[in-house]
Amino acid sequence: MACDLNETWTDCFSEFQSLLAAAAAPWRCFALAGVNKEAMLSAPELMDAKTDPGCGYGPIRSLNALLQEGEIPSAATLQGEALLDVMDIIHQRELQYLQGYALTSGVLAFPYFFRMNLLQEQNSTLHAYCRGVARCVEMTMRAVMTTRVHSDEEFVPWIKELDREEHITDDQILCELEEAACKAESFPAIAARLRWRKHFLATLKLFVTGSKKLDTETACDIAKEGLDLLNSTVYERESEPVQDNRFFRDTEVAYWASTFTPTKPIPCMPFKEAMQMYKILLTQLASLKELLSMPSLQSIMEFVESLGAQKPLLPVRSIAVIVLFRNDPSESFLHGPSLLHRVLEELAAEHGAPLYLKIFDADEELLEGVIKYRIHKTMDPLKITPEQTMYLRHQTVESVRRWAVEMSKAYLIHMETMLCNRGLAHRRIMNALPQLGSLQEMAYSTDTSIFLATIPAVSAEMEQEAIKRMPVLAMYTNQHVLRVMELLFSLSLELDLFTQGELIPALWYLNFTQRAQLENLALLSPPSSSMIPETRINRRTKVPLYNLALTTRNVAHPDTIRLALLEATRMIADAVFVAACMMESRGLIDLSSAAKHSLVTVESIFNHRMSCLKHIRSPPFKPYARCIAAKPDFSAGDNTNPVKLSLYAQKTGEIAVGAAERLKQILHSKDLLPLRKKAIQSHLEGMERTARAVGASLAAFAAVCDDEEALKGYTVTVERPFLPSMPCFTLRKKETK
Predict the structure, then answer these.
(1) pLDDT one-digit tens code per residue, 592-613
(2) H or E stretch at 719
(3) What's the domain range around 200?
(4) 172 lies in the same domain as 217
(5) Where is the NAA35-like TPR repeats domain (predicted)?
(6) pLDDT digits (tens, 9 = 90+) for 630-679
């Protein structure tokens, strides 16, 4: 069969046979000797409907024929409620494209998208609306395809272009939409649809094509206007829009579009639900304005991680990447100082280590002091030439710059990763671990070879403590690495990648990364003033008496919210881990055996799954045996005493409830700035509810754990009631049959 857009389908097979006959080549069917052609044609691959590839033929008429014969009525007949229904159905079908489905499954079912000139002649109002939809589709595709946060199966690119009318600019389309809305004032609902389309297109245009801070701010403001319009009464409907099947050709559109993407019609989401999805989309787009005024890198990272955890639609994630990165994120990060500078500023302000920022800014006095100290401690000053001194100067500045560049790359990769879908984010985190291991090596090498972090030159009593706190670059790098490790385990739990037998080592490892972050932050914070000697420099030799990496440390402004949040998270993880161990010890759940029919041990599965952590230099990889060794044993010794077990469960439940109270205090803390609170509030509330659920489950367990008969009526299930990354072991009564 063959088809031209301007003709109907024609039968090619008879023409092919005629051509063969004219060429004296009669039609024959050949088969190998011993092959039964009838059996071959009856093979399951041909006759079984489940293996049918879907290739067939049928009468598919061209768009021109349907228009000429009137089977697709003139668009001029669409007025009033009928026009409103068509506009709302197109609006609903556009959402399918934003969700990742092919255009042929949705918007393109309205045939006039292929005949925009004809639509302009017949119905100028609908033409303005459809032209706005087509340009929104183009902007969406541009945003998605120019970023790298989507997987192949997540978005179907539209290869064959729509009738985009490239000579028509975005501003002209926006003006046409406003003019059409003014003409439709007698029908407020239609005017509202046209103005909303104008807002949506203007928002996408400014996000995708804008390059200035003002463009982003304006786009967010327009998105809020569009959200207000969606929330207005004029956008409400008492019933679903009525689809006139004469105007929507789901069957033919895939052939008209000449697409190779296998598609089938997808039912529209109810109008109210679709508009709710648009409201969420616009709310998320409007919230991107907060990124421009966030004071610290930590708050920006929290915002990005929180946005990714909400699982927004792909266009929202793509636009967030555009807002964050633009063309050169290392030079104009969020229209402010470069990311390199912000990293070094955070070291100075939050961790009290201004030396590296001053070296980066080429502070001559400090730079000379670092070089003189290095020469004095590791070289013979009498043999150093001026050329070697200049080389050491260049090496010192370049080492700080190189570390800052690599640290910035790690942050950029992390933010982009967090804006991928959850499965792709998990894979990219694993792929980033080798680079993070190399970054750890670079940071430690810079600390020890350039800034001599192992030679503080202080008294013997203070030396060990000083050495612990001096490798600032290494500890700062480790803080990010530990956070990435925590996210790796959180995503694995969220995606349910661990088997039930791997949950205990996974929970222990998660808790380990949280404790390590707290310990690392404690070391990274400035030491007490008694440990920081005064900066003294020999007037004659210009050699500092003590290491400047220690003496330049000063009073910092630690992120108390970050510390409190980490501590609360650790408390919840502690409670969940201990609850799992206690409930398993009473036979309520099996957390040790391999999955049914598994041919590999749980230990081998876990070690293989988490072998990616071997790329990390610090902390070293903890195998399954090490994780299980940390498991408290409630089946031996005094721990088997039911009374003690009940008391232990009560205390653990109190820890979980205490974590919930601490989270509540964080939400009401004056130190939590409004912008930061808005970004992480939903996550903190989910954590609080999870902590209370863990506490309630442990309280119920404590009440029955000393009664063997009562325990027989209970079972434990692994649930994620509030946050998909935070499991809860819930004690439930067995259902009676």
Answers:
(1) 998 888 889 999 999 999 999 9
(2) strand 714-719
(3) 75-299
(4) yes
(5) 291-626
(6) 988 877 666 667 788 889 999 999 999 999 999 999 999 999 989 899 99
Q: How far apart are CA 527 and CA 505, in angstroms?
A: 34
pLDDT recorded at residue 164: 58
Q: How far is CA 342 from CA 295, 407, 474, in A?
A: 10, 11, 17
Q: Which amino acid is at 278?
A: Y
> What are residue 54's phi and psi, to 5 degrees?
90, 5
Which amino acid, one-letter code, is at 124?
A: S
Q: Is the same domain home to 416 and 496?
A: yes
Count up the domains in the chain and report the number.
3
DSSP-assigned letters across all residues of 226-284: HHHHHHSGGG--SSPPPP-TTT--TTTHHHHTT--S-----PPPPHHHHHHHHHHHHHH
What are the structure tokens assigned to 424, written together?
A: 């792709």
In-domain check, residue 44: no
Tell me which amino acid residue 376 is: H
CB 345 within 8 A of CB 295: no
Task: Please give the Cα distance from 688 to 211 (Å, whole number).
Answer: 40
Whether 291 and 398 share a structural domain: no
Beta bridge pairs of residue 544: 537
On whether residue 11 sits in a domain, the answer given is no
* Percent of all residues in the chain with a pLDDT value above 90, rounded to a whole number: 60
Share of the chain above pLDDT 70, in %: 89
Is residue 344 domain-shared with residue 365, that is, in the same domain? yes
Residue 248 CA to residue 71 CA, distance in Å, equals 11
| Closest CA relative to residue 483, chosen from 576, 584, 411 | 411
More confident residue, 501 or 21: 501
